[in-house]
Design goal:
two-stranded antiparallel sheet; 498 residues
Length: 498
Protein backbone atom coordinates (compact mmCIF):
# COMPACT_ATOMS: atom_id res chain seq x y z
CA UNK A 1 0.00 0.00 0.00
CA UNK A 2 1.28 3.42 -0.90
CA UNK A 3 2.09 5.54 2.10
CA UNK A 4 0.30 8.92 2.07
CA UNK A 5 1.90 11.76 3.98
CA UNK A 6 -0.45 13.69 6.25
CA UNK A 7 1.55 16.92 6.22
CA UNK A 8 1.78 17.36 2.47
CA UNK A 9 -1.13 19.78 2.17
CA UNK A 10 0.42 21.40 -0.88
CA UNK A 11 0.32 18.30 -3.04
CA UNK A 12 -2.34 18.44 -5.74
CA UNK A 13 -2.09 14.70 -6.24
CA UNK A 14 -2.83 13.99 -2.57
CA UNK A 15 -6.23 15.67 -2.82
CA UNK A 16 -7.31 14.13 -6.07
CA UNK A 17 -6.01 10.62 -5.38
CA UNK A 18 -9.18 9.53 -3.63
CA UNK A 19 -11.48 10.92 -6.28
CA UNK A 20 -9.50 9.90 -9.37
CA UNK A 21 -6.79 7.24 -9.15
CA UNK A 22 -3.68 8.43 -10.95
CA UNK A 23 -3.07 5.28 -12.97
CA UNK A 24 -1.21 5.19 -16.23
CA UNK A 25 -4.37 4.24 -18.12
CA UNK A 26 -6.33 7.06 -16.52
CA UNK A 27 -3.64 9.57 -17.44
CA UNK A 28 -3.66 8.42 -21.06
CA UNK A 29 -7.44 8.66 -21.28
CA UNK A 30 -7.34 12.08 -19.67
CA UNK A 31 -4.63 13.22 -22.06
CA UNK A 32 -6.64 12.05 -25.03
CA UNK A 33 -9.64 13.99 -23.72
CA UNK A 34 -7.53 17.11 -23.41
CA UNK A 35 -6.27 16.43 -26.90
CA UNK A 36 -9.68 16.40 -28.63
CA UNK A 37 -9.23 20.05 -29.46
CA UNK A 38 -5.87 19.38 -31.05
CA UNK A 39 -7.43 16.73 -33.26
CA UNK A 40 -9.78 19.28 -34.70
CA UNK A 41 -6.85 21.47 -35.63
CA UNK A 42 -4.82 18.91 -37.52
CA UNK A 43 -4.26 15.78 -35.46
CA UNK A 44 -5.95 12.53 -36.43
CA UNK A 45 -6.84 11.82 -32.79
CA UNK A 46 -4.96 8.53 -32.71
CA UNK A 47 -1.97 7.74 -30.57
CA UNK A 48 1.30 8.88 -32.14
CA UNK A 49 3.21 6.02 -33.72
CA UNK A 50 6.56 5.64 -31.99
CA UNK A 51 8.52 5.72 -35.24
CA UNK A 52 11.81 7.48 -35.63
CA UNK A 53 10.49 9.66 -38.45
CA UNK A 54 7.56 11.05 -36.49
CA UNK A 55 9.69 11.66 -33.41
CA UNK A 56 12.26 13.47 -35.53
CA UNK A 57 9.63 15.66 -37.19
CA UNK A 58 8.13 16.50 -33.82
CA UNK A 59 11.45 17.60 -32.35
CA UNK A 60 12.21 19.69 -35.44
CA UNK A 61 8.79 21.34 -35.12
CA UNK A 62 9.52 22.27 -31.50
CA UNK A 63 12.89 23.72 -32.51
CA UNK A 64 11.27 25.73 -35.29
CA UNK A 65 8.66 27.06 -32.87
CA UNK A 66 11.46 28.15 -30.52
CA UNK A 67 13.15 30.13 -33.32
CA UNK A 68 9.92 31.91 -34.17
CA UNK A 69 9.26 32.70 -30.51
CA UNK A 70 12.74 34.19 -30.12
CA UNK A 71 11.79 36.72 -32.79
CA UNK A 72 8.17 37.41 -31.83
CA UNK A 73 8.96 37.63 -28.11
CA UNK A 74 11.00 40.76 -28.81
CA UNK A 75 7.81 42.83 -28.99
CA UNK A 76 7.07 42.61 -25.27
CA UNK A 77 10.52 41.64 -24.04
CA UNK A 78 12.37 44.61 -25.50
CA UNK A 79 9.77 47.38 -25.47
CA UNK A 80 11.18 48.80 -22.25
CA UNK A 81 14.63 48.87 -23.87
CA UNK A 82 13.42 50.67 -27.01
CA UNK A 83 11.13 53.13 -25.22
CA UNK A 84 13.84 55.71 -24.28
CA UNK A 85 15.25 55.48 -27.82
CA UNK A 86 11.87 56.09 -29.43
CA UNK A 87 11.12 58.98 -27.09
CA UNK A 88 14.55 60.55 -27.63
CA UNK A 89 14.18 60.38 -31.41
CA UNK A 90 10.65 61.80 -31.53
CA UNK A 91 11.60 64.61 -29.18
CA UNK A 92 13.47 66.14 -32.08
CA UNK A 93 10.12 67.21 -33.53
CA UNK A 94 8.24 67.56 -30.23
CA UNK A 95 10.41 68.49 -27.25
CA UNK A 96 7.52 68.06 -24.80
CA UNK A 97 7.30 64.29 -25.26
CA UNK A 98 8.22 62.01 -22.35
CA UNK A 99 8.54 58.26 -21.88
CA UNK A 100 5.14 58.24 -20.19
CA UNK A 101 3.58 59.63 -23.37
CA UNK A 102 4.89 56.74 -25.47
CA UNK A 103 3.80 54.01 -23.07
CA UNK A 104 0.46 54.29 -24.84
CA UNK A 105 2.08 52.21 -27.61
CA UNK A 106 2.29 49.07 -25.48
CA UNK A 107 -1.10 49.78 -23.94
CA UNK A 108 -2.71 50.04 -27.37
CA UNK A 109 -1.08 46.82 -28.52
CA UNK A 110 -2.19 45.01 -25.38
CA UNK A 111 -5.77 46.27 -25.77
CA UNK A 112 -5.93 44.85 -29.29
CA UNK A 113 -4.04 41.72 -28.26
CA UNK A 114 -6.88 40.25 -26.22
CA UNK A 115 -9.37 40.72 -29.04
CA UNK A 116 -7.01 39.30 -31.66
CA UNK A 117 -6.62 36.19 -29.49
CA UNK A 118 -10.27 35.30 -30.11
CA UNK A 119 -10.01 36.43 -33.73
CA UNK A 120 -7.16 33.99 -34.34
CA UNK A 121 -8.90 31.01 -32.77
CA UNK A 122 -12.43 31.52 -34.09
CA UNK A 123 -11.86 33.04 -37.55
CA UNK A 124 -8.32 32.87 -38.93
CA UNK A 125 -7.52 29.26 -38.00
CA UNK A 126 -10.77 27.82 -39.47
CA UNK A 127 -10.25 29.82 -42.67
CA UNK A 128 -6.48 29.51 -43.16
CA UNK A 129 -5.50 26.56 -41.01
CA UNK A 130 -2.89 26.55 -38.25
CA UNK A 131 0.12 26.90 -40.54
CA UNK A 132 -1.64 29.63 -42.56
CA UNK A 133 -2.45 31.54 -39.38
CA UNK A 134 1.18 31.21 -38.28
CA UNK A 135 2.54 32.48 -41.60
CA UNK A 136 0.13 35.42 -41.62
CA UNK A 137 1.16 36.43 -38.12
CA UNK A 138 4.86 36.19 -38.96
CA UNK A 139 4.39 38.31 -42.10
CA UNK A 140 2.53 41.04 -40.19
CA UNK A 141 5.21 40.99 -37.48
CA UNK A 142 8.05 41.64 -39.94
CA UNK A 143 5.96 44.20 -41.82
CA UNK A 144 5.25 46.12 -38.61
CA UNK A 145 9.00 46.32 -37.91
CA UNK A 146 9.70 47.81 -41.35
CA UNK A 147 6.81 50.26 -41.14
CA UNK A 148 8.10 51.49 -37.79
CA UNK A 149 11.12 52.92 -39.66
CA UNK A 150 8.79 55.19 -41.63
CA UNK A 151 6.43 56.25 -38.86
CA UNK A 152 9.22 57.31 -36.48
CA UNK A 153 9.39 60.43 -38.64
CA UNK A 154 5.65 60.99 -38.17
CA UNK A 155 3.65 61.31 -34.93
CA UNK A 156 2.76 59.04 -32.02
CA UNK A 157 -0.52 57.93 -33.57
CA UNK A 158 1.25 56.26 -36.48
CA UNK A 159 3.69 54.58 -34.10
CA UNK A 160 0.76 53.29 -32.05
CA UNK A 161 -0.70 51.72 -35.20
CA UNK A 162 2.51 49.95 -36.29
CA UNK A 163 4.32 49.12 -33.05
CA UNK A 164 1.08 48.80 -31.08
CA UNK A 165 -1.90 47.47 -33.02
CA UNK A 166 -0.03 45.57 -35.78
CA UNK A 167 2.34 43.91 -33.33
CA UNK A 168 -0.55 43.05 -31.01
CA UNK A 169 -2.37 41.38 -33.91
CA UNK A 170 0.72 39.56 -35.16
CA UNK A 171 1.75 38.19 -31.76
CA UNK A 172 -1.57 36.43 -31.15
CA UNK A 173 -1.76 35.09 -34.71
CA UNK A 174 1.58 33.44 -33.94
CA UNK A 175 0.97 32.30 -30.36
CA UNK A 176 -2.32 30.50 -31.03
CA UNK A 177 -0.91 28.01 -33.58
CA UNK A 178 2.37 27.66 -31.69
CA UNK A 179 0.37 26.58 -28.65
CA UNK A 180 -1.08 23.71 -30.69
CA UNK A 181 1.26 22.60 -33.49
CA UNK A 182 4.31 21.49 -31.45
CA UNK A 183 2.20 19.97 -28.65
CA UNK A 184 0.21 17.84 -31.13
CA UNK A 185 3.33 15.72 -31.75
CA UNK A 186 3.77 14.97 -28.01
CA UNK A 187 0.31 14.56 -26.41
CA UNK A 188 1.73 12.86 -23.33
CA UNK A 189 4.20 15.71 -22.71
CA UNK A 190 2.04 18.60 -23.81
CA UNK A 191 2.67 20.75 -20.73
CA UNK A 192 6.43 20.41 -21.04
CA UNK A 193 6.39 21.21 -24.77
CA UNK A 194 4.21 24.29 -24.31
CA UNK A 195 6.41 25.43 -21.43
CA UNK A 196 9.55 25.14 -23.57
CA UNK A 197 8.00 26.98 -26.51
CA UNK A 198 6.56 29.75 -24.34
CA UNK A 199 9.81 29.97 -22.43
CA UNK A 200 11.56 30.86 -25.68
CA UNK A 201 9.18 33.83 -25.98
CA UNK A 202 10.48 35.14 -22.68
CA UNK A 203 14.09 34.31 -23.54
CA UNK A 204 13.95 36.61 -26.56
CA UNK A 205 14.95 39.63 -24.48
CA UNK A 206 18.27 37.98 -23.59
CA UNK A 207 19.27 37.92 -27.27
CA UNK A 208 17.48 40.91 -28.81
CA UNK A 209 18.00 43.53 -26.07
CA UNK A 210 21.84 43.55 -26.28
CA UNK A 211 21.56 43.47 -30.07
CA UNK A 212 19.33 46.55 -30.09
CA UNK A 213 21.69 48.45 -27.80
CA UNK A 214 24.75 47.41 -29.82
CA UNK A 215 23.16 48.59 -33.08
CA UNK A 216 21.83 51.89 -31.71
CA UNK A 217 24.48 52.85 -29.16
CA UNK A 218 27.70 50.87 -29.82
CA UNK A 219 29.86 53.57 -28.18
CA UNK A 220 27.78 53.38 -24.98
CA UNK A 221 27.05 57.12 -24.99
CA UNK A 222 25.21 58.13 -21.83
CA UNK A 223 21.83 59.88 -22.03
CA UNK A 224 21.63 63.53 -21.10
CA UNK A 225 19.78 64.71 -18.01
CA UNK A 226 17.17 67.21 -19.16
CA UNK A 227 15.19 69.40 -16.79
CA UNK A 228 11.75 70.27 -18.08
CA UNK A 229 8.83 72.27 -16.77
CA UNK A 230 5.89 69.92 -16.34
CA UNK A 231 2.71 71.63 -17.52
CA UNK A 232 0.60 69.33 -15.37
CA UNK A 233 2.40 69.77 -12.06
CA UNK A 234 3.84 73.24 -12.85
CA UNK A 235 7.24 72.17 -11.49
CA UNK A 236 10.63 71.18 -12.87
CA UNK A 237 11.30 67.49 -13.51
CA UNK A 238 14.49 65.74 -14.63
CA UNK A 239 14.46 63.16 -17.43
CA UNK A 240 17.16 61.09 -19.17
CA UNK A 241 17.11 61.22 -22.98
CA UNK A 242 19.65 60.63 -25.72
CA UNK A 243 20.67 63.73 -27.62
CA UNK A 244 23.78 62.53 -29.46
CA UNK A 245 23.22 62.83 -33.22
CA UNK A 246 24.87 59.49 -34.06
CA UNK A 247 22.70 57.61 -31.58
CA UNK A 248 19.52 59.31 -32.79
CA UNK A 249 20.30 58.61 -36.46
CA UNK A 250 20.74 54.90 -35.75
CA UNK A 251 17.34 54.51 -34.09
CA UNK A 252 15.19 54.31 -37.26
CA UNK A 253 17.96 52.41 -39.10
CA UNK A 254 17.92 49.76 -36.38
CA UNK A 255 14.45 48.72 -37.54
CA UNK A 256 15.97 47.41 -40.79
CA UNK A 257 18.57 45.35 -38.94
CA UNK A 258 15.94 44.02 -36.54
CA UNK A 259 13.63 43.13 -39.42
CA UNK A 260 16.47 41.17 -41.02
CA UNK A 261 17.15 39.28 -37.79
CA UNK A 262 13.45 38.59 -37.20
CA UNK A 263 12.97 37.54 -40.81
CA UNK A 264 15.89 35.09 -40.65
CA UNK A 265 14.71 33.45 -37.43
CA UNK A 266 11.11 33.29 -38.63
CA UNK A 267 11.96 31.89 -42.07
CA UNK A 268 14.05 29.10 -40.55
CA UNK A 269 11.31 28.41 -38.03
CA UNK A 270 8.54 28.23 -40.64
CA UNK A 271 10.58 25.75 -42.68
CA UNK A 272 10.94 23.53 -39.63
CA UNK A 273 7.41 23.69 -38.17
CA UNK A 274 5.28 20.84 -39.50
CA UNK A 275 1.65 20.09 -38.78
CA UNK A 276 0.91 16.59 -37.57
CA UNK A 277 -0.75 14.57 -40.38
CA UNK A 278 -4.53 14.26 -40.22
CA UNK A 279 -7.13 11.96 -41.75
CA UNK A 280 -8.51 12.84 -45.16
CA UNK A 281 -12.18 13.89 -44.90
CA UNK A 282 -14.62 15.41 -47.33
CA UNK A 283 -14.81 19.18 -47.52
CA UNK A 284 -18.53 19.25 -46.80
CA UNK A 285 -18.02 17.22 -43.63
CA UNK A 286 -15.29 19.60 -42.48
CA UNK A 287 -17.64 22.57 -42.91
CA UNK A 288 -20.39 20.78 -40.99
CA UNK A 289 -17.96 20.02 -38.19
CA UNK A 290 -16.81 23.64 -38.14
CA UNK A 291 -20.29 25.09 -37.64
CA UNK A 292 -21.22 22.39 -35.15
CA UNK A 293 -18.05 22.99 -33.18
CA UNK A 294 -18.60 26.76 -33.11
CA UNK A 295 -22.13 26.26 -31.83
CA UNK A 296 -21.03 23.85 -29.13
CA UNK A 297 -18.13 26.12 -28.19
CA UNK A 298 -20.37 29.12 -27.52
CA UNK A 299 -22.83 26.88 -25.66
CA UNK A 300 -19.97 25.57 -23.53
CA UNK A 301 -18.81 29.09 -22.69
CA UNK A 302 -22.24 30.39 -21.80
CA UNK A 303 -23.57 27.35 -19.94
CA UNK A 304 -20.46 26.03 -18.22
CA UNK A 305 -17.56 28.47 -18.02
CA UNK A 306 -19.20 31.85 -17.50
CA UNK A 307 -21.36 30.46 -14.69
CA UNK A 308 -18.39 29.09 -12.74
CA UNK A 309 -16.94 31.22 -9.94
CA UNK A 310 -13.53 29.56 -10.33
CA UNK A 311 -13.32 30.85 -13.89
CA UNK A 312 -13.94 34.41 -12.73
CA UNK A 313 -11.32 34.11 -9.99
CA UNK A 314 -8.85 32.87 -12.63
CA UNK A 315 -9.94 35.76 -14.84
CA UNK A 316 -9.38 38.33 -12.07
CA UNK A 317 -6.04 36.77 -11.11
CA UNK A 318 -4.73 36.92 -14.67
CA UNK A 319 -6.09 40.46 -15.09
CA UNK A 320 -4.16 41.60 -12.01
CA UNK A 321 -0.98 39.84 -13.12
CA UNK A 322 -1.22 41.40 -16.58
CA UNK A 323 -1.40 44.91 -15.09
CA UNK A 324 1.74 44.21 -13.06
CA UNK A 325 3.54 42.75 -16.08
CA UNK A 326 2.62 45.71 -18.28
CA UNK A 327 4.07 48.03 -15.64
CA UNK A 328 7.35 46.08 -15.58
CA UNK A 329 7.61 45.98 -19.37
CA UNK A 330 7.06 49.72 -19.66
CA UNK A 331 9.30 51.20 -17.01
CA UNK A 332 12.20 48.93 -16.09
CA UNK A 333 14.65 50.73 -18.39
CA UNK A 334 13.35 54.23 -17.74
CA UNK A 335 13.94 53.77 -14.01
CA UNK A 336 17.31 52.07 -14.64
CA UNK A 337 18.58 54.98 -16.72
CA UNK A 338 17.71 57.37 -13.89
CA UNK A 339 20.07 55.41 -11.65
CA UNK A 340 22.82 54.60 -14.16
CA UNK A 341 23.91 56.37 -17.34
CA UNK A 342 25.69 53.24 -18.56
CA UNK A 343 23.40 52.15 -21.39
CA UNK A 344 25.19 48.85 -21.98
CA UNK A 345 25.00 47.99 -18.27
CA UNK A 346 21.27 48.62 -18.39
CA UNK A 347 21.10 46.50 -21.55
CA UNK A 348 22.80 43.66 -19.67
CA UNK A 349 20.06 43.92 -17.07
CA UNK A 350 17.56 43.62 -19.92
CA UNK A 351 19.19 40.38 -21.01
CA UNK A 352 19.03 38.97 -17.49
CA UNK A 353 15.39 39.99 -17.31
CA UNK A 354 14.81 37.86 -20.41
CA UNK A 355 16.32 34.88 -18.61
CA UNK A 356 14.04 35.45 -15.61
CA UNK A 357 11.07 35.76 -17.98
CA UNK A 358 11.89 32.36 -19.47
CA UNK A 359 12.58 30.64 -16.13
CA UNK A 360 9.39 32.11 -14.66
CA UNK A 361 7.19 30.39 -17.26
CA UNK A 362 8.94 27.07 -16.69
CA UNK A 363 8.63 27.53 -12.92
CA UNK A 364 4.90 28.17 -13.16
CA UNK A 365 4.31 24.98 -15.10
CA UNK A 366 6.47 22.94 -12.73
CA UNK A 367 4.75 24.26 -9.60
CA UNK A 368 1.32 23.63 -11.09
CA UNK A 369 2.19 19.97 -11.66
CA UNK A 370 3.52 19.50 -8.13
CA UNK A 371 1.42 21.66 -5.80
CA UNK A 372 -2.04 23.11 -5.34
CA UNK A 373 -2.57 26.26 -7.36
CA UNK A 374 -4.31 28.17 -4.57
CA UNK A 375 -1.29 27.74 -2.28
CA UNK A 376 1.74 28.32 -4.48
CA UNK A 377 0.21 31.13 -6.54
CA UNK A 378 -0.94 32.93 -3.39
CA UNK A 379 2.58 32.69 -1.96
CA UNK A 380 3.95 34.11 -5.21
CA UNK A 381 1.56 37.07 -4.96
CA UNK A 382 2.70 37.73 -1.40
CA UNK A 383 6.35 37.70 -2.48
CA UNK A 384 5.54 40.09 -5.35
CA UNK A 385 3.87 42.45 -2.88
CA UNK A 386 6.89 42.45 -0.59
CA UNK A 387 9.27 42.99 -3.53
CA UNK A 388 7.27 45.98 -4.79
CA UNK A 389 7.36 47.52 -1.30
CA UNK A 390 11.15 47.16 -1.26
CA UNK A 391 11.32 48.62 -4.78
CA UNK A 392 9.43 51.71 -3.63
CA UNK A 393 12.40 52.67 -1.43
CA UNK A 394 15.26 51.49 -3.69
CA UNK A 395 14.27 52.62 -7.19
CA UNK A 396 15.59 56.16 -6.66
CA UNK A 397 18.68 55.25 -4.60
CA UNK A 398 20.70 52.32 -5.92
CA UNK A 399 20.81 50.76 -9.41
CA UNK A 400 21.93 47.32 -8.27
CA UNK A 401 19.25 47.18 -5.59
CA UNK A 402 16.60 48.06 -8.16
CA UNK A 403 18.08 45.53 -10.60
CA UNK A 404 17.74 42.72 -8.05
CA UNK A 405 14.12 43.73 -7.36
CA UNK A 406 13.34 43.82 -11.08
CA UNK A 407 14.83 40.36 -11.61
CA UNK A 408 12.83 38.94 -8.69
CA UNK A 409 9.62 40.53 -10.00
CA UNK A 410 10.17 39.04 -13.44
CA UNK A 411 10.92 35.62 -11.97
CA UNK A 412 7.72 35.65 -9.94
CA UNK A 413 5.32 37.70 -12.06
CA UNK A 414 5.45 35.71 -15.29
CA UNK A 415 4.66 32.33 -13.70
CA UNK A 416 0.97 32.81 -14.46
CA UNK A 417 1.54 32.49 -18.21
CA UNK A 418 1.85 28.73 -17.70
CA UNK A 419 0.18 28.12 -14.33
CA UNK A 420 -3.18 29.78 -15.02
CA UNK A 421 -3.82 28.07 -18.39
CA UNK A 422 -2.70 24.75 -16.89
CA UNK A 423 -5.03 25.21 -13.92
CA UNK A 424 -7.93 26.20 -16.19
CA UNK A 425 -7.50 23.07 -18.30
CA UNK A 426 -7.12 20.98 -15.14
CA UNK A 427 -10.44 22.29 -13.79
CA UNK A 428 -12.50 22.26 -16.99
CA UNK A 429 -11.78 18.99 -18.71
CA UNK A 430 -13.33 19.42 -22.18
CA UNK A 431 -12.61 19.53 -25.91
CA UNK A 432 -13.14 23.31 -25.88
CA UNK A 433 -9.98 24.32 -24.08
CA UNK A 434 -9.07 26.74 -26.88
CA UNK A 435 -12.19 28.81 -26.25
CA UNK A 436 -11.48 28.67 -22.51
CA UNK A 437 -7.93 29.98 -22.90
CA UNK A 438 -9.05 32.53 -25.50
CA UNK A 439 -11.64 33.94 -23.11
CA UNK A 440 -9.02 34.26 -20.38
CA UNK A 441 -6.91 36.09 -22.98
CA UNK A 442 -9.43 38.94 -22.95
CA UNK A 443 -7.76 40.04 -19.72
CA UNK A 444 -4.93 41.40 -21.93
CA UNK A 445 -7.32 43.96 -23.38
CA UNK A 446 -8.68 45.02 -20.00
CA UNK A 447 -5.28 45.09 -18.30
CA UNK A 448 -3.51 47.21 -20.89
CA UNK A 449 -6.47 49.57 -21.04
CA UNK A 450 -6.28 49.89 -17.26
CA UNK A 451 -2.53 50.47 -17.19
CA UNK A 452 -2.85 53.12 -19.89
CA UNK A 453 -5.41 55.03 -17.86
CA UNK A 454 -3.38 54.56 -14.69
CA UNK A 455 -0.24 55.96 -16.33
CA UNK A 456 -2.04 59.07 -17.52
CA UNK A 457 -3.51 59.73 -14.08
CA UNK A 458 -0.35 59.15 -12.04
CA UNK A 459 2.19 60.86 -14.28
CA UNK A 460 0.04 63.92 -14.98
CA UNK A 461 -1.50 64.58 -11.56
CA UNK A 462 -0.57 67.90 -10.01
CA UNK A 463 -0.62 66.54 -6.47
CA UNK A 464 1.80 63.64 -7.06
CA UNK A 465 5.40 64.73 -6.56
CA UNK A 466 6.92 61.25 -6.78
CA UNK A 467 4.91 59.35 -9.45
CA UNK A 468 7.06 56.20 -9.53
CA UNK A 469 6.69 55.77 -5.76
CA UNK A 470 2.91 55.94 -6.10
CA UNK A 471 3.02 53.67 -9.14
CA UNK A 472 4.93 50.92 -7.35
CA UNK A 473 2.68 51.33 -4.30
CA UNK A 474 -0.39 50.66 -6.45
CA UNK A 475 1.29 47.56 -7.92
CA UNK A 476 1.98 46.30 -4.39
CA UNK A 477 -1.67 46.82 -3.40
CA UNK A 478 -2.92 45.02 -6.53
CA UNK A 479 -0.64 42.08 -5.84
CA UNK A 480 -1.89 41.91 -2.25
CA UNK A 481 -5.49 41.82 -3.47
CA UNK A 482 -4.55 39.08 -5.91
CA UNK A 483 -3.61 36.85 -2.95
CA UNK A 484 -7.32 36.50 -2.17
CA UNK A 485 -8.23 35.79 -5.82
CA UNK A 486 -5.67 32.98 -6.00
CA UNK A 487 -6.62 31.54 -2.60
CA UNK A 488 -10.27 31.29 -3.68
CA UNK A 489 -9.55 29.11 -6.73
CA UNK A 490 -10.56 25.48 -6.23
CA UNK A 491 -8.48 22.43 -7.06
CA UNK A 492 -11.48 20.14 -7.66
CA UNK A 493 -12.23 19.21 -11.23
CA UNK A 494 -15.61 20.35 -12.51
CA UNK A 495 -18.35 17.95 -13.52
CA UNK A 496 -19.45 19.39 -16.86
CA UNK A 497 -22.96 18.82 -18.13
CA UNK A 498 -22.27 19.78 -21.75
Amino acid sequence: MEHKSHWNIFSKKSETAVQEPSTKATRKQEDKYYGDELSDYGSNGSQISPTTQKTWRGHVTVLGAILIQLAVGAHHGTFGNLLPYFTSFMRQSDATLTNADLTVILSAGGIFQGLSNLLAGLVVVPLCGLKGCLMLGCFIFCLATLLTYLVLYQDIIMLVITYGFLYGLAVQLVLVPLSILPAAWFPEKRGLVIGIVMGAYGLSALIITPLQTWVINPANIAPEKITMLSLESNSNETFNYFTNAEVLNRIPQSMFYLAAVYGTLITLGLLMVTEKPKNQVETSEEHEKLFTKLSKTFQFLCCEILKSKDFWFLFLSRYTYMIIIAALLMFWKSVSLKLSGDDQLVSTLGGLIGVMNCLSRLLGGYLNDKFKFCYFQSIISILITVTFIITMFLYNINFYGFAVCALVLYLLGFTHFSSIPAQAIYLYNSPYNGALIGTLGLTDTLAYLSIGILNRIIFSANEIENPFFVFFLIMAVLSAINVFFNAAISDKKKVLTN
